[in-house]
Amino acid sequence: MKIPKEVVAALKKEKVFLIAAHINPDGDALGSCLALSSALESAGKEVYVYNKDSVPAFYRFLPGYKTVGSSLKKAIAKDPVLILLDCNSPDRAALERYSFRKSIVIDHHETENDFGDIRWVVPAAAATGLMVFYLIKAIGIAFTGDIARNLYTAIAVDTGTFRYSNTSPEVLKASAELIEAGADPAFIAECLYERWEKTRFDLLVMTLNNLEIKNGVAVMHITKDMFDKTGTTSEDTENFSNLPRAIKSVKISALFRDIGDGFWKASLRSKGNVNVAKIAELFGGGGHKNAAGFKISGGLKSAKEKLLRAAEKTSRDR
Amino acid sequence: MKIPKEVVAALKKEKVFLIAAHINPDGDALGSCLALSSALESAGKEVYVYNKDSVPAFYRFLPGYKTVGSSLKKAIAKDPVLILLDCNSPDRAALERYSFRKSIVIDHHETENDFGDIRWVVPAAAATGLMVFYLIKAIGIAFTGDIARNLYTAIAVDTGTFRYSNTSPEVLKASAELIEAGADPAFIAECLYERWEKTRFDLLVMTLNNLEIKNGVAVMHITKDMFDKTGTTSEDTENFSNLPRAIKSVKISALFRDIGDGFWKASLRSKGNVNVAKIAELFGGGGHKNAAGFKISGGLKSAKEKLLRAAEKTSRDR
């Protein structure tokens, strides 16, 4: 991967940095921020890591997670250089009210926006963590065990621990190097996949019980009553919509969850070439080809029927 | 990985081979056999692949799977050299009634048995497929796309697609090379994890509905009635016992399934350092530290109680 010289030069020259990622941070956002922060600090820099949202409980095995988010005011007072990671505009990081004397964008999301004095945007990169991996090497800093765990987690999360189509030779080679530097694949997998609260598992089983499949579309729902009975919240539903993909005949999997005020949030997942972003757009939502979502008001039954009709329509258009 | 010179020399010198793996073959057994067979054939050898059992439906994406098993008589008539893969004694491959003028064992399972004129047994290897990977390189044969898919699948299955503690730097580097040679990680993951029959999914949901957790031990069961209602068999229960491991408080997960004649088969899975082989041994069963099993007769309720008492006892002994 080719790294723009200006990025390396700026990281070497500047003294104070504010590193920020998108709100609702995932493993790639958090791991990338914490790894780069740790690397720059070891080079004697003053570094602040900001996120508007708190670190989700299941990411609190990432070394340095406690440094996230606390000190925006203090950071701003130091006139830092902004490094935006895993997103490419200040509003995605809830920083639109601030201005910075210099800003660097490092991201792997497609974008039409041109924010940033220095921009390094590589949509083909499997994870922002992979870009940060090469960047840390380029500035000549050795991977510590902490940096390795953060970067391995970032890459693991964005490749579905090496099951998605972005699992390239370079992804595996970089991950091999991170294990050599101290990352523990089994520990990280356990942290990511085997630390559910029992209440979350109960909600999952309850949800699977209402699964229906029509014309290759799997549909499930979670009512407010189900959240109440299990003592869970929307946060606990992450990845639920993926599970019916296990079934051979399922091309699209949809989960409707009650988000209050008469609205349902639909999370769509698809296999292979089936594009659920197009379906979500019909309802004013959006996303990627294999993962998208939208909001819809009204009754559950009618919401499900509308989705099934839309799926049928886009399938005819294919 | 150091390969014994005799293995390479024998593969180069001999002309006719019978390659066999253990009964109830898994992805590592099948992928290893098919990859080595394909490599030897490309070097002009006559190769037969034998397994007593048929290739499970979900492994029928492995190139060459149709060559497995058909022609034992024909092979024996050619006086072949036996290559045992992913096991280390003829009875594990249902070949104990035959004798061979020369036999080669290539395996990564611990063993006290000494069958084989040439033995290459490496318990530290993550998969037999990884050993075959190095072997094919050592005999100087290029990886075709077919060989790459077979070996990548072998390694993926035995490392839980890179989630188990045997996921080493060399596992990832070899897998990277196999992607470069044509293996498709997303396609292989889809074949392994997303081609369930709906009936199997129904059985899973029914099984999860009877999950109980006591003192960190998750217990589920499948009755004959549940198999009948969903139209499934024991084969469909693979990996079910793993799922409750997702719950943080669960250290041991047990699945009891009705195997007829008044017997239950218990499949045990554990996390980290919890040794379920020791529990299984108390009931005359066995296995590995994190995956073991045993048979028990009598009522389901009493079988579950006996397991819970045994788990408590071994936990006190720890």
The fold-level CATH name of the largest domain in chain A is inorganic pyrophosphatase (n-terminal core)
Helix content of chain A: 25-40%
The unreliable regions of chain A are none
Distance between the termini of chain A: 35 Å
Short description:
The structure is a homodimer of 318-residue chains. Chain A has 318 residues and is of the alpha/beta class. Chain A folds into 2 domains: 189 residues, Alpha-Beta Complex (inorganic pyrophosphatase (n-terminal core)); 119 residues, Diaminopimelate Epimerase, Chain A, domain 1 (Roll), CATH 3.10.310.30.
Describe the protein.
Two copies of one chain form a homodimer. By secondary structure, chain A is of the alpha/beta class. The first copy, chain A, has two domains: 189 residues, Alpha-Beta Complex (inorganic pyrophosphatase (n-terminal core)); 119 residues, Diaminopimelate Epimerase, Chain A, domain 1. Chain A has eleven helices and eleven strands. In chain A, strands 6-7-8-9-11-10 form a six-stranded mixed beta sheet, sandwiched between helices. A five-stranded parallel beta sheet of chain A has the order 2-1-3-4-5. In chain A, helix 2 runs antiparallel to helix 5. Chain A is globular. The mean pLDDT of chain A is 95.
